[in-house]
Amino acid sequence: MEVISEYTTRQGCRVHCSQMTLSPLIDRKAELSRLEGHCAAAAGGAARLVSVHGRRQVGKTFLLAHLIERRRELGERTLFVTALPGASERQQLDAFLRGVRSQLDIPFLPERFDRWDGALRFVATLAASAPLVVAIDEVPYLLSSSPTFAGSIQQLWDEIRRTAGPLHLLVVLTGSSVATMRALGDAGGALFGRFDDELRVDPFDLPSAALVLPEAEPSVVVEAYAACGGYPHHLQSWDPGLSQEDNLRRLCFTSGGLLLRNGAQLIADVPEDGGFRRTLHAIGSGIQQRSAVANSAGQRVERPLDLLERATLIRQVRPVGAPDRAAGRWEPADAFLRAWYELCWADAEQIEAGLGDQVAAARIGRWQRHLGWVFEEQARAHAIRLAARGDLPADARYGRWWSTSGQKAEIDVLGVVGGRAAVIGEAKWDARPLGLRMLDELKAKERAAPDPLPFPILCTWSRGGATDELTKAGVRAFTPVDMIER
User: Fold this and answer.
1) Where does 74-130 have alpha helices with state H?
2) Which of 173, 254, 289, 348 is the least crowded, having the fewest Cβ atoms under 10 Å away?
3) What pTM was computed for the model?
4) Which domains are assigned to the chain?
5) DSSP letters of 209-220?
């Protein structure tokens, strides 16, 4: 395990003895508020056990570092340790003790912890009279090296719940293997029914990404988001002063490039055996139908699909309004992961060998296709935000739609109310304003849509906006300027 000061130093934070100076926390107010609510409950004597999970690089540890800093500013004791990859149980226990010794002012400490139940009980006794926050990061590493860890937490928490007296303890378990962390709290998991909260930290949405790049033009934010996804560290590495080509060359098509490297890290927890990687690679390569995915992977894929979906790496998308039993399309659930597959995965060895310029030239068409896909995704997300504030029908379900029989038709943004099409929209990554020709396209989409209302709302999302003629015809036009607004 590593103490938090070591971790935050590697992330660019400044550490002066026990004093940490962290970069500002961007747009994680809701998550921080939930955690501080548990801190308040624990301070009042009601012990809390919380799970925090999310993909690598999404900002879980940075969020917890801010929580720890705030509690320390209030004079509360905190312990923040990170499990070591590949370490033995003995090494994990010794590192945990080092964290206790360096972060908690305790006059008498055992020379070593022999078991996890003893280590956890010792820490719990410290919270009998005063608040204590214990955060353990990268718990999946502990589970792989310490089979008794989850059972020790379970036994401790069962004892705490049977005890009538107050205990001022908050324990936060966090990890990047989403499937593993979720399994802990699911039925059959060691901590089923024990967690007081299971907080998922998701990548930023587009408006939050714009906060990371405050000097960038809205269209540049969309380009950065298409390459970096909603990962704060990725977005901070995007230079708004450079062209998208230069940014991609630096981050994707250069040996050791941040996005090239982190794509592989994002899927590091996916098992090599059992066909899980093969299934993910098939979907990342653009194969969408279950039968085709199985054919590419060379095996049955029911279990890999379930695990990868639970890990939030893939998702199944159905036409909005279609029943859950309808056949859907499988796709990466993350803009960055999709970009990595489109740009880097198949040619990673060539890029590392110094052939990035040749790879970039060959992949430019894929980048443009991916950029258009992300823009459509963000148009749908923007429609949902518009509905939330009453600018589009709030009772509609929003998503993409495509015909499953008869003449082929697709609609980028469809809002459905009671099974009827109420909002019809198209997203085009075009620099020139859309003109009246788009009205003809929207009317054609309206005729193909499922049971449209007499006067559905027609919308466009475009980089260049729309002409006066199109908006005067009743079409609502949105641009990246609108899309990055909260």
Assistant:
1) 89-103, 116-125
2) 289
3) 0.90
4) 2-200 (3.40.50.300), 206-374 (1.10.10.10), 379-483 (3.40.1350)
5) HHHHSTTS-HHH
